[in-house]
Amino acid sequence: MKKYIKFLEKNHLFMQIPEEEILELLKEIDGVIKKVKKDDVLLRLDDPVKTVGIVLEGQLNIVKQTKQGERIVVTSIHPNQYFQEALCCGQVAKSPVSVVASKESTVLFMDYKKMISVKNARLIENLLFILAQKNFILQNRLDLLGIRTLRQKIISYLKSVSDKQGSNKIYIPFDREEFADFLCVDRSALSHELSKMKKDGMINYHKNEFELYI
Fold first, then answer.
1. What is the structure's pLDDT at 69?
2. Residues facing residue 198 across a β-bridge
């Protein structure tokens, strides 16, 4: 656990909490670190949700299955980001999504009920901030899915990543299948549209790396 303390000090959940206090808090809230392999399922559809997770290393995907059996990547979770906190806070009895490791990862799990019961006002305040931030991110996701044309969806997403990374040369956290799932489109349609956009001089790309000219 001590190996990741400096990392956790920079995490919003433990912001402004001293290192020695973080160690004690992790004991109080049953903090457990787990290593998972690519494609391991950390949470299955309809599983009870009792823990909040933080990705320490690697990447996870939040996946939803439609009634038609289609797989949608709702979002990806990267180092220093959280998952399951909104489900815990909303007291969701059964998970509506699955959490799958998209690469070998290391994750910190914490018992949610113990988190909200500890006598640490800063931790509770930080958790509320995280929940508010997650709500904002989900709203942006809904806005993206509401865009009608595939090209505009691609442009909107790539521009948002460009703004976040501060460059027109960007990296996205998805392979083509995951990117198609994220945009809720067919993979072949996505590949075809990306090829057309490249031909039109709007973008250039190689695997997960893109350069924008728009």
1. 75
2. none
Helix then strand then coil, in percent of the chain rounded to 5, is 45, 25, 35
Cα–Cα distances in angstroms (integers) from residue 141 to residues 9, 33, 41, 116, in the given order: 28, 29, 23, 28
User: Which amino acid is located at 191 in the chain?
Assistant: S
- pLDDT over 80 (residue 175): yes
In angstroms, what CA-CA distances link 36 with 53, 68, 81, 82? 13, 29, 16, 16
pTM > 0.90: no
The residue among 138, 165, 170 whose CA lies nearest residue 154 is 170
Residue whose entry in the numeric block shows the structure tokens 């391991």: 40
State the residue for tokens 């919003």. Answer: 12
* C-alpha torsion angle, residues 127, 133, 139, 141 (rounded to 10): -100
Sign of CA dihedral 141, 208, 82, 104: positive
Helix (H) or strand (E) holding 53: strand 51-57
